[in-house]
């Protein structure tokens, strides 16, 4: 400890369970700073998972459906969750089965790359379903 103090560093025990215990001269402030820099770099590289929304109508045309599904697969492959919103207008509320059929079709089309996180449910005039990457 006297030699560490003479050099202006701290004596830090690295491996206390070994025989004999291993110690090292360290500048504790510098060590903490480098550990904090490593943690910040790790935080920068991690990917956050966003929720992307795709809106549809119950009587959607086939080409429009294909374009929406292309977007859904792109979002899922990027690692994002996808919220599919099916909006009913006017008398379409009487034909909710069409909406369920459409969401079931979406579920089957993305079955190999995504799993259903929140099954279809009705909230007011909208039917919602959430897909997450496998």
**Nearest-integer average pLDDT:** 90
- Tell me the strand percentage band: 25-35%
Task: Figure out the total of helices.
Answer: 4
Low-confidence stretches: none
Number of strands: 6
Rg from alpha-carbon coordinates = 28 Å
Element pattern in H and E: HEEHEHEHEE
What's the story with the biggest beta sheet?
Answer: 4 strands, mixed
Classification by helices and strands: alpha+beta
Distance between the termini: 54 Å
Biggest sheet strand line-up: 3-4-6-5
> Based on CA inertia axes, which overall geometry fits?
rod-shaped
Helix content estimate: 40-55%
Description:
It is a single chain. By secondary structure, this protein is of the alpha+beta class. It contains four helices and six strands. It has helices at 2-7, 28-45, 62-77, 96-109; strands at residues 10-15, 22-26, 51-56, 81-87, 114-123, 126-133. The strands form two sheets. It has a four-stranded mixed beta sheet, covered by helices on one side. Strand 3 (51-56), helix 3 and strand 4 (81-87) form a beta-alpha-beta unit. The longest helix has 18 residues, at 28-45. It is rod-shaped and about 85 Å long. The two termini are 54 Å apart. The model has no long low-confidence stretch (mean pLDDT 90).
Topology:
Elements: H1 2-7, E1 10-15, E2 22-26, H2 28-45, E3 51-56, H3 62-77, E4 81-87, H4 96-109, E5 114-123, E6 126-133
Parallel strand pairs: 3-4
Antiparallel strand pairs: 1-2, 4-6, 5-6
């Amino acid at each position: 400890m006297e030699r560490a103090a003479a050099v202006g560093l701290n004596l830090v025990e690295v491996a206390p369970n070994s025989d004999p215990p291993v110690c090292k001269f360290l500048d504790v402030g510098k060590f903490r700073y480098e550990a904090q820099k490593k943690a910040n770099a790790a935080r920068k590289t991690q990917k956050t998972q966003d929720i992307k929304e795709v809106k549809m109508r119950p009587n959607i045309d086939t080409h429009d459906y294909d374009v929406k599904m292309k977007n859904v697969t792109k979002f899922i492959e990027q690692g994002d969750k996808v919220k599919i919103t099916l909006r009913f207008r006017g008398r379409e509320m009487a034909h909710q089965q069409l909406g369920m059929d459409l969401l079931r079709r979406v579920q089957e089309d993305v079955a190999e790359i995504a799993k259903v996180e929140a099954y279809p449910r009705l909230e007011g005039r909208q039917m919602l379903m959430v897909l997450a990457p496998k």
